[in-house]
Amino acid sequence: MDDVIVSLDSVFAVVRYHTWWPSANDPFYLANIEENTVRTRYYQPDTAHYVPRLFIDGLIDGEFSGPWEELIAARDTVGSPLELVGEVMPSGGIDVDVVLVGTEEPLDLEGPLRIRYVLTESDVYVASPTGPHWYDQAMRDMVPDAEGVELEIGLGDTIYESRTFPVDEEWDIENLEVVVFVQRDDSTKEVLQAGKWPVPADVPNLSIVDVALLDPMGDGDGRAEEGEEVELILSLMNSEPWPDAAAVTATLREADASLTLIDSTADFGAIAAGDTVDNAGSPITLSVADYLLPHRTVFTLHIEAEPGGYAADDTFSLVIGHPQILVVDDDDGATCETSYSDIMAESLDLFFEQWEVAEQGSPMEWLLNSELVVWFTGDDSTQTLTADDREHLGAFLDGGGKLFLAGQNIGQDIGDEPFYHDYLHATFVDSATSDIAIFGVAGDPVWGGGIIINQAQQSMDVVSATEDADSVLVYQNGGVAGITYEGEYRVIYFAFGVEGADESSPLVLHRHQVLSKALGWLGLPVEVSGGEPVGPESALPLCLVHQNYPNPFAEMTSLSYVLGGGEGYLSARGVWDGSGGGRDASYRDAHVKLAIYNIQGQRVRLLVDEPQEDGRYAVGWDGRDERGETVSSGVYFMRLDARGERSVRKMVRLK
């Protein structure tokens, strides 16, 4: 076959791998057991002893020996329904970008197709007990795995695909090659098209390893916010064993509509192999729009360097503004976030800020600029909510916030504190119930269904609701497990952790469903399994004024509000489509008033007084009254009147 490779190199892509028979300790096989096993069984699923085989374009054409050159040459005359072009460039890992085009060849594109990515290395020595010791085109890795990626493409379609191979320092980069092929996953296993590209070894390997944002003219919190001009300091690493880099520059591609590039290019100079250099002396600068919806944006950085005319793109993301949902991880270093933030991001598709109490302390300012807070304490029993936490949460709720609090030792820890009774509207009854079954109160439209608690939770509190609150979840053997309160603010308090919900049975509520119900009751439109919206219709107000930002403020603050409820409410996904989704068309284009009042109830400033359609709006207040005079420091209220409803928020003006 080596002779065939030499004579047909331009049309011949080779991938070699080793099975576990007759020697299961063969180092060629042990080098990547998973890929070797999957690909061997892919071609020989029913064979007990795997023997050397040659597969040409996925077709079985011989064992041990055969007229391989004739078979391969004949296969080269067969047309393909696909065109495949690609490029390989190191950028941290080894990036491969391919373009697939469905052509007008006679072969069809029906049936299950997969595209597979393979990295091979040549001139590899293997101390094999059987067979040769030196190999070319030895399979080193497959991404994302040996199964490949499902592909759907029709005639005339163009598809762009990208993958990255991690780099093993033991590989010889001068002998690496990337092979990409499209294969039918049916009984034929026919390869319809393939391509191969050497990995460049005479260029640098540059990638982003850190991003810092500076806002020296803003509030200095390291976040790009409305009206600020910010600087981006990027750290680029030149990975070994690729050569030293010279004349390194990086240009930020066009940002989203909320950002304006001021200086998009940074000069990094020289970066030796193995070193990291930043652009602190040549920052990238951009400005943020005066009013925007908080969101996450993805930037593309185009990097150029010498030698070899190196050019590659790398990406990074930043949060712009402050999401209106804050998730506070207060589980004392445990991993309960998998039952909260991971589910909210992956299953419920929500956009939120994550705060780690163990690393960042109590979230005072960020808490006051949030609309809805999810706070969990895990198994902690001595520092569930500290005095600072309680003070900050009290201020948040006084401003009309929405809180979902969960933890199995909270009552045991702070049940005697005024906050427990006054803000959680709960009374501590007992600790460490042995009950494992929790049910919604009969007749409740939101909290129906059962929750089974796994053995990991051994210290769930038993509580009771104050007269102005509702018991919504109860233990099977008696006692309250969950409380809701609705007044000037909203609170859901669980005396157990959502992480304790057992998911082994389809007959009980799973964690994502519990979270969906809680967030839906707080006014956030999310969906449970089956696509049904959660929460009573009254939970979605037709008008809502969000917490202003910044708060407290000195000179200028931004006030945003939503008319009509529906999608985009609370900026959950960080994307505003302009739709309000109100429940009654007669409310649309109704008159809207947004005004500022002082603590005596006197109107200070009328900011909006006009008809408006459903949607999201934002206005600024410069701390001046109707006469244009600066108001004094103190507490003020923003009041929104629209659609027959009223929404009020408290804010603080500082000089």
TrEMBL record:
Gene3D superfamilies: 2.60.40.4070, Immunoglobulins. Residues 591-641 form the FlgD/Vpr Ig-like domain. It comes from candidate division TA06 bacterium SM1_40. It comes from the Bacteria. It holds the Pfam family FlgD_ig. This is FlgD/Vpr Ig-like domain-containing protein. InterPro entries: FlgD/Vpr_Ig-like, Ig-like_fold.
